[in-house]
Protein backbone atom coordinates (compact mmCIF):
# COMPACT_ATOMS: atom_id res chain seq x y z
CA UNK A 1 0.00 0.00 0.00
CA UNK A 2 1.17 3.54 -0.75
CA UNK A 3 2.45 5.51 2.22
CA UNK A 4 1.94 8.94 0.67
CA UNK A 5 -0.97 10.47 -1.22
CA UNK A 6 -2.35 13.82 -2.26
CA UNK A 7 -5.87 12.79 -1.26
CA UNK A 8 -7.09 9.90 0.89
CA UNK A 9 -10.76 9.13 0.26
CA UNK A 10 -12.39 7.18 3.11
CA UNK A 11 -15.30 5.03 1.97
CA UNK A 12 -15.84 2.67 -0.97
CA UNK A 13 -19.49 3.41 -1.60
CA UNK A 14 -20.87 5.34 -4.51
CA UNK A 15 -19.93 8.70 -2.96
CA UNK A 16 -16.29 7.82 -2.27
CA UNK A 17 -15.63 6.11 -5.59
CA UNK A 18 -17.34 8.93 -7.52
CA UNK A 19 -15.29 11.57 -5.70
CA UNK A 20 -12.07 9.68 -6.50
CA UNK A 21 -13.07 9.58 -10.18
CA UNK A 22 -14.09 13.25 -10.27
CA UNK A 23 -10.74 14.24 -8.76
CA UNK A 24 -8.88 12.40 -11.54
CA UNK A 25 -10.88 14.39 -14.11
CA UNK A 26 -9.46 17.54 -12.55
CA UNK A 27 -5.86 16.41 -12.81
CA UNK A 28 -5.41 15.27 -9.20
CA UNK A 29 -2.94 12.38 -9.04
CA UNK A 30 -1.87 10.23 -6.11
CA UNK A 31 -5.30 9.37 -4.79
CA UNK A 32 -5.80 6.46 -2.39
CA UNK A 33 -9.29 5.23 -1.55
CA UNK A 34 -9.55 3.17 1.63
CA UNK A 35 -12.53 0.97 2.42
CA UNK A 36 -12.78 -1.09 5.60
CA UNK A 37 -14.82 -3.82 3.93
CA UNK A 38 -15.25 -4.20 0.15
CA UNK A 39 -16.57 -1.81 -2.48
CA UNK A 40 -20.36 -1.33 -2.37
CA UNK A 41 -20.69 -3.07 0.99
CA UNK A 42 -22.34 -0.38 3.12
CA UNK A 43 -25.37 1.83 2.53
CA UNK A 44 -24.80 1.95 -1.24
CA UNK A 45 -25.27 -1.81 -1.59
CA UNK A 46 -28.29 -1.83 0.69
CA UNK A 47 -30.24 1.11 -0.69
CA UNK A 48 -33.54 0.96 -2.54
CA UNK A 49 -31.80 2.05 -5.78
CA UNK A 50 -34.41 4.66 -6.69
CA UNK A 51 -33.54 8.09 -8.03
CA UNK A 52 -36.17 10.76 -7.85
CA UNK A 53 -36.32 14.40 -8.76
CA UNK A 54 -39.66 15.12 -7.08
CA UNK A 55 -38.31 17.14 -4.17
CA UNK A 56 -39.72 20.08 -2.28
CA UNK A 57 -36.66 22.34 -1.91
CA UNK A 58 -34.58 24.11 -4.55
CA UNK A 59 -31.32 22.58 -3.33
CA UNK A 60 -32.58 19.00 -3.42
CA UNK A 61 -34.12 19.64 -6.84
CA UNK A 62 -30.84 20.97 -8.24
CA UNK A 63 -28.82 18.11 -6.73
CA UNK A 64 -31.15 15.44 -8.08
CA UNK A 65 -31.82 16.95 -11.50
CA UNK A 66 -28.11 17.38 -12.19
CA UNK A 67 -27.43 13.85 -10.97
CA UNK A 68 -30.11 12.22 -13.12
CA UNK A 69 -28.79 14.07 -16.16
CA UNK A 70 -25.33 12.64 -15.46
CA UNK A 71 -26.68 9.14 -14.79
CA UNK A 72 -28.36 9.12 -18.21
CA UNK A 73 -24.98 8.91 -19.95
CA UNK A 74 -22.71 7.74 -17.13
CA UNK A 75 -22.09 4.19 -18.38
CA UNK A 76 -20.73 5.58 -21.67
CA UNK A 77 -18.70 8.25 -19.89
CA UNK A 78 -17.13 5.68 -17.58
CA UNK A 79 -16.74 3.17 -20.43
CA UNK A 80 -18.54 0.45 -18.48
CA UNK A 81 -19.83 -2.08 -21.05
CA UNK A 82 -22.25 -3.86 -18.71
CA UNK A 83 -24.15 -0.60 -18.21
CA UNK A 84 -25.53 0.73 -14.94
CA UNK A 85 -29.09 -0.48 -15.58
CA UNK A 86 -30.56 3.02 -15.44
CA UNK A 87 -34.25 2.78 -16.12
CA UNK A 88 -36.61 5.77 -16.02
CA UNK A 89 -39.89 4.17 -15.02
CA UNK A 90 -41.05 7.06 -12.84
CA UNK A 91 -42.03 7.74 -9.23
CA UNK A 92 -45.69 7.67 -8.22
CA UNK A 93 -46.46 9.42 -4.94
CA UNK A 94 -50.03 8.92 -3.70
CA UNK A 95 -51.87 11.61 -1.73
CA UNK A 96 -54.16 10.73 1.19
CA UNK A 97 -54.75 13.92 3.15
CA UNK A 98 -55.75 17.48 2.37
CA UNK A 99 -52.54 18.76 3.96
CA UNK A 100 -50.51 16.45 1.75
CA UNK A 101 -52.43 17.59 -1.32
CA UNK A 102 -51.56 21.20 -0.60
CA UNK A 103 -47.88 20.34 0.00
CA UNK A 104 -47.66 18.24 -3.16
CA UNK A 105 -49.28 20.96 -5.26
CA UNK A 106 -46.71 23.39 -3.91
CA UNK A 107 -43.94 20.91 -4.70
CA UNK A 108 -45.23 20.33 -8.23
CA UNK A 109 -45.32 24.04 -9.03
CA UNK A 110 -41.71 24.36 -7.77
CA UNK A 111 -40.68 21.24 -9.71
CA UNK A 112 -42.28 22.64 -12.87
CA UNK A 113 -40.29 25.86 -12.41
CA UNK A 114 -37.19 23.67 -12.65
CA UNK A 115 -38.42 22.20 -15.93
CA UNK A 116 -39.74 18.88 -14.59
CA UNK A 117 -42.97 17.83 -16.24
CA UNK A 118 -44.46 16.34 -13.05
CA UNK A 119 -48.13 15.40 -13.31
CA UNK A 120 -50.70 15.85 -10.59
CA UNK A 121 -53.12 12.94 -11.08
CA UNK A 122 -56.75 12.87 -9.98
CA UNK A 123 -57.86 9.64 -8.25
CA UNK A 124 -59.46 8.25 -11.41
CA UNK A 125 -56.24 8.86 -13.38
CA UNK A 126 -54.03 7.01 -10.92
CA UNK A 127 -54.85 3.56 -12.29
CA UNK A 128 -53.58 4.52 -15.74
CA UNK A 129 -50.13 4.73 -14.13
CA UNK A 130 -50.43 2.08 -11.38
CA UNK A 131 -53.24 -0.28 -12.44
CA UNK A 132 -53.23 -2.19 -9.14
CA UNK A 133 -53.43 0.78 -6.76
CA UNK A 134 -56.28 0.67 -4.24
CA UNK A 135 -58.62 3.66 -4.52
CA UNK A 136 -59.40 3.51 -0.78
CA UNK A 137 -58.88 7.00 0.60
CA UNK A 138 -56.82 8.01 -2.42
CA UNK A 139 -57.10 11.74 -3.17
CA UNK A 140 -54.65 11.76 -6.08
CA UNK A 141 -50.96 11.34 -6.77
CA UNK A 142 -47.97 13.02 -8.31
CA UNK A 143 -46.05 11.22 -11.03
CA UNK A 144 -42.88 12.01 -12.90
CA UNK A 145 -41.82 9.61 -15.63
CA UNK A 146 -38.13 10.63 -15.69
CA UNK A 147 -37.50 9.46 -12.13
CA UNK A 148 -36.25 5.89 -11.98
CA UNK A 149 -33.66 3.57 -10.54
CA UNK A 150 -30.26 2.09 -11.38
CA UNK A 151 -27.93 -0.58 -10.06
CA UNK A 152 -26.00 0.70 -7.04
CA UNK A 153 -23.49 -2.14 -7.50
CA UNK A 154 -22.71 -1.51 -11.15
CA UNK A 155 -22.74 2.27 -10.73
CA UNK A 156 -20.15 2.03 -7.96
CA UNK A 157 -18.10 -0.56 -9.86
CA UNK A 158 -18.20 1.69 -12.93
CA UNK A 159 -16.92 4.70 -10.95
CA UNK A 160 -14.30 2.58 -9.17
CA UNK A 161 -12.97 0.93 -12.33
CA UNK A 162 -12.77 4.28 -14.16
CA UNK A 163 -10.99 5.80 -11.15
CA UNK A 164 -8.54 2.88 -11.11
CA UNK A 165 -7.79 3.28 -14.83
CA UNK A 166 -7.05 6.94 -14.07
CA UNK A 167 -4.51 5.92 -11.43
CA UNK A 168 -6.48 5.79 -8.17
CA UNK A 169 -5.30 3.09 -5.73
CA UNK A 170 -8.25 1.33 -4.15
CA UNK A 171 -7.45 -0.46 -0.90
CA UNK A 172 -10.13 -2.84 0.34
CA UNK A 173 -10.16 -4.32 3.86
CA UNK A 174 -8.38 -1.19 5.02
CA UNK A 175 -9.86 0.35 8.12
CA UNK A 176 -9.09 3.86 9.30
CA UNK A 177 -7.97 3.80 12.93
CA UNK A 178 -7.13 7.47 13.45
CA UNK A 179 -5.29 10.51 12.16
CA UNK A 180 -2.00 12.18 12.92
CA UNK A 181 -2.89 15.82 13.41
CA UNK A 182 -0.80 18.95 13.48
CA UNK A 183 -2.99 21.69 14.94
CA UNK A 184 -6.00 21.89 12.59
CA UNK A 185 -4.45 19.81 9.82
CA UNK A 186 -4.51 16.07 9.21
CA UNK A 187 -0.98 14.97 8.29
CA UNK A 188 -1.57 11.25 7.90
CA UNK A 189 -4.24 8.60 8.04
CA UNK A 190 -3.57 5.61 10.29
CA UNK A 191 -5.00 2.33 9.05
CA UNK A 192 -4.81 -1.33 10.03
CA UNK A 193 -2.48 -1.77 7.04
CA UNK A 194 -0.14 1.14 7.71
CA UNK A 195 -0.10 4.92 7.63
CA UNK A 196 -0.66 7.15 4.60
CA UNK A 197 0.63 10.71 4.80
CA UNK A 198 -1.55 13.06 2.78
CA UNK A 199 -2.47 16.62 1.87
CA UNK A 200 -6.17 16.15 2.46
CA UNK A 201 -8.83 13.62 3.40
CA UNK A 202 -12.37 13.03 2.15
CA UNK A 203 -14.81 11.62 4.69
CA UNK A 204 -17.31 9.60 2.64
CA UNK A 205 -17.77 6.90 5.26
CA UNK A 206 -21.58 6.79 5.14
CA UNK A 207 -23.04 5.29 8.32
CA UNK A 208 -19.66 5.56 10.05
CA UNK A 209 -18.82 9.13 9.00
CA UNK A 210 -19.40 10.61 12.46
CA UNK A 211 -16.93 8.11 13.92
CA UNK A 212 -14.30 9.02 11.33
CA UNK A 213 -14.85 12.73 12.00
CA UNK A 214 -14.52 12.15 15.74
CA UNK A 215 -11.03 10.73 15.13
CA UNK A 216 -10.10 14.27 14.03
CA UNK A 217 -11.95 15.72 17.06
CA UNK A 218 -14.86 16.91 14.91
CA UNK A 219 -18.30 16.19 16.35
CA UNK A 220 -20.86 15.91 13.58
CA UNK A 221 -24.59 16.35 14.31
CA UNK A 222 -25.31 13.00 12.67
CA UNK A 223 -26.57 9.63 13.73
CA UNK A 224 -27.05 6.31 11.96
CA UNK A 225 -30.25 4.34 11.90
CA UNK A 226 -31.16 0.93 10.51
CA UNK A 227 -33.58 0.79 7.59
CA UNK A 228 -34.82 -2.52 6.25
CA UNK A 229 -35.84 -3.75 2.80
CA UNK A 230 -37.24 -7.01 1.45
CA UNK A 231 -37.46 -8.45 -2.03
CA UNK A 232 -39.87 -11.03 -3.43
CA UNK A 233 -39.39 -13.68 -6.05
CA UNK A 234 -40.13 -12.53 -9.62
CA UNK A 235 -43.81 -12.44 -10.57
CA UNK A 236 -45.68 -11.16 -13.63
CA UNK A 237 -45.43 -7.39 -14.30
CA UNK A 238 -47.91 -5.52 -12.06
CA UNK A 239 -46.62 -1.93 -11.89
CA UNK A 240 -43.76 0.07 -13.35
CA UNK A 241 -42.99 3.15 -11.25
CA UNK A 242 -41.64 3.36 -7.73
CA UNK A 243 -44.67 3.83 -5.47
CA UNK A 244 -43.74 5.97 -2.48
CA UNK A 245 -46.32 6.81 0.17
CA UNK A 246 -45.53 9.42 2.78
CA UNK A 247 -48.71 8.49 4.64
CA UNK A 248 -47.60 4.87 5.09
CA UNK A 249 -43.87 5.59 5.01
CA UNK A 250 -43.07 2.90 2.44
CA UNK A 251 -41.61 2.74 -1.04
CA UNK A 252 -41.90 -0.20 -3.40
CA UNK A 253 -40.88 -1.02 -6.93
CA UNK A 254 -41.08 -3.98 -9.28
CA UNK A 255 -37.74 -4.62 -10.93
CA UNK A 256 -37.44 -5.57 -14.62
CA UNK A 257 -37.00 -9.24 -13.70
CA UNK A 258 -40.35 -9.11 -11.87
CA UNK A 259 -39.06 -9.12 -8.28
CA UNK A 260 -40.73 -6.57 -6.00
CA UNK A 261 -38.59 -4.60 -3.57
CA UNK A 262 -40.05 -2.70 -0.61
CA UNK A 263 -38.89 -0.78 2.42
CA UNK A 264 -40.44 1.17 5.26
CA UNK A 265 -39.01 3.42 7.95
CA UNK A 266 -39.70 2.53 11.58
CA UNK A 267 -40.45 5.55 13.80
CA UNK A 268 -39.32 3.54 16.83
CA UNK A 269 -35.99 2.43 15.36
CA UNK A 270 -33.24 3.28 17.86
CA UNK A 271 -30.16 5.18 16.72
CA UNK A 272 -27.14 2.98 16.16
CA UNK A 273 -25.31 0.56 13.94
CA UNK A 274 -27.59 -2.48 14.15
CA UNK A 275 -27.84 -4.20 10.75
CA UNK A 276 -29.81 -7.27 11.79
CA UNK A 277 -33.19 -8.28 10.38
CA UNK A 278 -36.53 -8.20 12.16
CA UNK A 279 -39.77 -10.10 11.74
CA UNK A 280 -41.56 -6.94 12.84
CA UNK A 281 -40.36 -5.27 9.63
CA UNK A 282 -41.68 -8.11 7.43
CA UNK A 283 -45.11 -7.86 9.00
CA UNK A 284 -45.21 -4.06 8.92
CA UNK A 285 -44.13 -3.57 5.34
CA UNK A 286 -46.29 -6.44 4.09
CA UNK A 287 -49.39 -4.98 5.81
CA UNK A 288 -48.80 -1.45 4.55
CA UNK A 289 -47.90 -2.29 0.98
CA UNK A 290 -50.70 -4.82 0.49
CA UNK A 291 -53.20 -2.26 1.80
CA UNK A 292 -52.24 0.08 -1.05
CA UNK A 293 -51.30 -2.53 -3.69
CA UNK A 294 -53.38 -5.63 -2.79
CA UNK A 295 -52.28 -7.59 -5.86
CA UNK A 296 -48.70 -7.89 -4.63
CA UNK A 297 -49.93 -10.02 -1.69
CA UNK A 298 -49.34 -13.27 -3.53
CA UNK A 299 -45.65 -12.51 -4.17
CA UNK A 300 -43.37 -14.59 -1.93
CA UNK A 301 -40.58 -12.92 0.04
CA UNK A 302 -37.15 -14.39 -0.70
CA UNK A 303 -34.81 -12.09 1.21
CA UNK A 304 -34.65 -9.20 3.65
CA UNK A 305 -31.69 -7.02 4.53
CA UNK A 306 -30.86 -3.77 6.24
CA UNK A 307 -28.51 -0.83 5.93
CA UNK A 308 -27.77 2.44 7.68
CA UNK A 309 -29.23 5.85 6.96
CA UNK A 310 -26.78 8.54 8.05
CA UNK A 311 -29.16 11.22 9.24
CA UNK A 312 -28.50 14.95 9.50
CA UNK A 313 -30.66 17.46 11.41
CA UNK A 314 -32.39 18.70 8.24
CA UNK A 315 -32.08 15.44 6.26
CA UNK A 316 -29.90 17.22 3.70
CA UNK A 317 -26.23 16.36 3.09
CA UNK A 318 -23.29 18.11 4.71
CA UNK A 319 -20.59 19.03 2.20
CA UNK A 320 -17.28 20.78 2.73
CA UNK A 321 -14.87 21.54 5.56
CA UNK A 322 -15.70 21.65 9.26
CA UNK A 323 -14.35 24.70 11.07
CA UNK A 324 -12.09 22.60 13.32
CA UNK A 325 -10.06 20.87 10.58
CA UNK A 326 -8.81 22.56 7.42
CA UNK A 327 -8.26 19.49 5.24
CA UNK A 328 -11.04 16.97 5.92
CA UNK A 329 -13.74 17.38 3.29
CA UNK A 330 -17.09 16.02 4.43
CA UNK A 331 -19.51 14.25 2.09
CA UNK A 332 -21.84 12.94 4.77
CA UNK A 333 -25.35 12.98 6.23
CA UNK A 334 -27.26 11.91 3.13
CA UNK A 335 -30.18 10.74 5.26
CA UNK A 336 -31.18 7.87 2.98
CA UNK A 337 -30.81 9.53 -0.41
CA UNK A 338 -27.10 9.71 -1.13
CA UNK A 339 -27.14 7.34 -4.07
CA UNK A 340 -29.50 9.53 -6.08
CA UNK A 341 -27.37 12.66 -5.71
CA UNK A 342 -23.91 11.06 -5.95
CA UNK A 343 -22.93 12.54 -9.34
CA UNK A 344 -23.55 16.16 -8.32
CA UNK A 345 -22.15 15.75 -4.82
CA UNK A 346 -18.95 14.08 -5.98
CA UNK A 347 -18.41 16.69 -8.68
CA UNK A 348 -18.75 19.48 -6.11
CA UNK A 349 -16.46 17.87 -3.54
CA UNK A 350 -13.81 17.54 -6.28
CA UNK A 351 -14.41 21.17 -7.20
CA UNK A 352 -13.93 22.22 -3.56
CA UNK A 353 -10.66 20.31 -3.32
CA UNK A 354 -9.31 21.82 -6.55
CA UNK A 355 -10.59 25.33 -5.73
CA UNK A 356 -12.96 25.54 -8.66
CA UNK A 357 -16.32 27.23 -8.70
CA UNK A 358 -19.04 24.78 -7.67
CA UNK A 359 -21.65 23.50 -10.12
CA UNK A 360 -24.20 24.79 -7.59
CA UNK A 361 -22.36 27.80 -6.10
CA UNK A 362 -24.93 28.16 -3.27
CA UNK A 363 -24.00 24.69 -1.99
CA UNK A 364 -20.89 26.20 -0.40
CA UNK A 365 -22.97 28.24 2.03
CA UNK A 366 -26.20 26.18 2.14
CA UNK A 367 -24.85 22.64 2.56
CA UNK A 368 -21.86 23.39 4.78
CA UNK A 369 -21.70 22.15 8.37
CA UNK A 370 -21.79 25.74 9.62
CA UNK A 371 -25.42 26.12 8.58
CA UNK A 372 -26.57 24.48 11.78
CA UNK A 373 -24.67 27.00 13.91
CA UNK A 374 -26.20 29.81 11.87
CA UNK A 375 -29.68 28.31 12.22
CA UNK A 376 -30.06 27.97 8.45
CA UNK A 377 -31.53 24.56 7.77
CA UNK A 378 -32.73 23.16 4.46
CA UNK A 379 -36.18 21.99 5.43
CA UNK A 380 -37.22 19.27 3.02
CA UNK A 381 -40.95 18.54 3.26
CA UNK A 382 -40.76 15.32 1.22
CA UNK A 383 -38.70 12.59 2.87
CA UNK A 384 -39.64 9.05 3.92
CA UNK B 1 -20.62 -29.97 -12.69
CA UNK B 2 -18.15 -29.00 -15.37
CA UNK B 3 -15.97 -26.28 -13.91
CA UNK B 4 -13.87 -26.05 -17.06
CA UNK B 5 -16.52 -24.85 -19.52
CA UNK B 6 -17.23 -21.13 -19.13
CA UNK B 7 -20.76 -21.62 -20.44
CA UNK B 8 -21.73 -23.80 -17.49
CA UNK B 9 -24.62 -22.26 -15.57
CA UNK B 10 -23.56 -21.88 -11.93
CA UNK B 11 -26.59 -19.97 -10.56
CA UNK B 12 -29.73 -21.47 -12.04
CA UNK B 13 -32.09 -18.89 -10.54
CA UNK B 14 -30.38 -15.91 -12.14
CA UNK B 15 -28.75 -17.71 -15.12
CA UNK B 16 -25.19 -16.79 -14.20
CA UNK B 17 -22.41 -18.63 -16.03
CA UNK B 18 -19.01 -19.76 -14.81
CA UNK B 19 -17.44 -17.34 -17.30
CA UNK B 20 -19.23 -14.36 -15.75
CA UNK B 21 -18.10 -15.35 -12.28
CA UNK B 22 -14.50 -15.85 -13.35
CA UNK B 23 -14.58 -12.47 -15.08
CA UNK B 24 -15.74 -10.76 -11.85
CA UNK B 25 -12.96 -12.49 -9.89
CA UNK B 26 -10.38 -11.40 -12.48
CA UNK B 27 -11.57 -7.81 -12.01
CA UNK B 28 -10.81 -8.08 -8.28
CA UNK B 29 -14.26 -8.90 -6.90
CA UNK B 30 -13.17 -11.87 -4.86
CA UNK B 31 -15.71 -12.24 -2.06
CA UNK B 32 -19.08 -13.98 -2.17
CA UNK B 33 -20.81 -10.66 -1.40
CA UNK B 34 -19.12 -8.77 -4.22
CA UNK B 35 -19.77 -11.54 -6.72
CA UNK B 36 -23.38 -11.87 -5.61
CA UNK B 37 -24.01 -8.15 -5.95
CA UNK B 38 -22.35 -7.78 -9.34
CA UNK B 39 -23.49 -10.96 -11.08
CA UNK B 40 -26.67 -11.69 -9.04
CA UNK B 41 -25.47 -15.27 -8.46
CA UNK B 42 -27.19 -16.43 -5.28
CA UNK B 43 -29.79 -13.66 -5.30
CA UNK B 44 -32.60 -15.68 -6.89
CA UNK B 45 -35.47 -17.79 -5.56
CA UNK B 46 -33.24 -20.35 -3.85
CA UNK B 47 -31.01 -17.67 -2.28
CA UNK B 48 -27.84 -19.54 -3.13
CA UNK B 49 -28.86 -22.88 -1.68
CA UNK B 50 -27.75 -24.44 -4.96
CA UNK B 51 -24.81 -22.31 -6.03
CA UNK B 52 -23.23 -21.09 -2.80
CA UNK B 53 -20.89 -24.04 -2.41
CA UNK B 54 -20.04 -23.95 -6.10
CA UNK B 55 -19.20 -20.25 -5.82
CA UNK B 56 -16.89 -20.96 -2.88
CA UNK B 57 -15.17 -23.66 -4.94
CA UNK B 58 -14.78 -21.38 -7.97
CA UNK B 59 -13.38 -18.49 -5.91
CA UNK B 60 -10.95 -20.88 -4.20
CA UNK B 61 -9.84 -22.34 -7.57
CA UNK B 62 -9.30 -18.92 -9.12
CA UNK B 63 -7.38 -17.55 -6.13
CA UNK B 64 -5.50 -20.83 -5.50
CA UNK B 65 -6.69 -20.97 -1.90
CA UNK B 66 -8.79 -23.39 0.11
CA UNK B 67 -12.59 -22.95 0.05
CA UNK B 68 -12.45 -22.72 3.83
CA UNK B 69 -10.41 -19.52 3.46
CA UNK B 70 -13.04 -17.74 1.36
CA UNK B 71 -14.94 -15.08 3.29
CA UNK B 72 -18.57 -16.13 3.69
CA UNK B 73 -21.56 -13.90 3.10
CA UNK B 74 -24.36 -13.46 5.57
CA UNK B 75 -27.36 -15.76 5.21
CA UNK B 76 -30.50 -13.67 5.15
CA UNK B 77 -34.02 -14.56 6.25
CA UNK B 78 -36.53 -15.91 5.50
CA UNK B 79 -35.13 -19.41 5.08
CA UNK B 80 -38.14 -20.40 3.01
CA UNK B 81 -40.19 -18.04 0.84
CA UNK B 82 -43.36 -16.60 2.42
CA UNK B 83 -46.24 -14.81 0.64
CA UNK B 84 -46.64 -11.16 1.58
CA UNK B 85 -50.36 -11.63 2.27
CA UNK B 86 -49.55 -14.21 4.95
CA UNK B 87 -46.99 -11.90 6.58
CA UNK B 88 -49.54 -9.08 6.47
CA UNK B 89 -52.05 -11.18 8.44
CA UNK B 90 -49.60 -12.51 11.02
CA UNK B 91 -49.18 -10.25 14.01
CA UNK B 92 -45.58 -10.12 15.16
CA UNK B 93 -46.74 -10.23 18.80
CA UNK B 94 -48.39 -13.62 18.34
CA UNK B 95 -45.13 -15.26 17.30
Describe this structure in words.
The complex is a heterodimer of chains A (384) and B (95). Chain A contains eleven helices and 18 strands. In chain A, the strands form three sheets. In chain A, strands 1, 2, 8, 9, 10, 11, 17 and 18 form an eight-stranded mixed beta sheet that branches. Chain A has 384 residues and is of the alpha/beta class. Chain A folds into two domains: 4-49 and 152-222 and 313-374, FAD/NAD(P)-binding domain; 88-146 and 226-308, D-Amino Acid Oxidase, subunit A, domain 2 (D-Amino Acid Oxidase, Chain A, domain 2, 2-Layer Sandwich), CATH 3.30.9. Chain A is globular, with a radius of gyration of 21 Å. In chain A, α1 (14-25) runs parallel beside α6 (152-165), α1 (14-25) crosses α9 (342-353) and α3 packs across α9. The longest helix of chain A is centred in the N-terminal third of the chain and has 20 residues, at 58-77. Chain A is 30% helix and 26% strand. In chain A, β9 and β10 form a beta hairpin. The two termini of chain A are 41 Å apart. Chain B is mainly α and 95 residues long. Chain B has a single domain, classed as Arc Repressor Mutant, subunit A (Orthogonal Bundle). Chain B is 37% helix and 7% strand. Chain B contains four helices and three strands, in the order ββαααβα. A two-stranded antiparallel sheet of chain B has the order 1-2. In chain B, β1 and β2 form a beta hairpin. In chain B, α1 packs across α3. The longest helix of chain B is centred in the middle third of the chain and has 12 residues, at 52-63. Chain B is elongated. Chain B starts with 8 loop residues before the first strand and ends in a 6-residue tail after the last helix. The A-B interface holds A 38-41, 45, 153-154, 157, 161, 232-234, 277, 279-280, 282-284, 286-287, 289-291, 296-305 and B 27, 29, 31, 33-34, 37-38, 43-45, 47, 76-78, 81-85, 87-88, 90-92, 95.
Amino acid sequence: MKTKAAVVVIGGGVIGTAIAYELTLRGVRDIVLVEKNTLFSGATARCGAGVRQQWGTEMNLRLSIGSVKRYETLAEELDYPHGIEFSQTGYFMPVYTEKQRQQFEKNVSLQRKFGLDVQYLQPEECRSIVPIVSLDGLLGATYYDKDGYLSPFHTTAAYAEAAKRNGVCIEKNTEVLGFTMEKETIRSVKTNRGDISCDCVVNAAGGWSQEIAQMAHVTLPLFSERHQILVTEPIEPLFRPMVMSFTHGFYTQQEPNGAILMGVGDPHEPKGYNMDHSYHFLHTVASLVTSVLPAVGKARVVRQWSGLYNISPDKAPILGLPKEVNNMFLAVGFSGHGFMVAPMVSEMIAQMITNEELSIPEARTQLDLGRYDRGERIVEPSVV
Amino acid sequence: MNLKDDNTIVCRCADVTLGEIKEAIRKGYTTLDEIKRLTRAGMGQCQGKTCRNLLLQIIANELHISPTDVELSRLRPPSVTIPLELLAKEDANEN
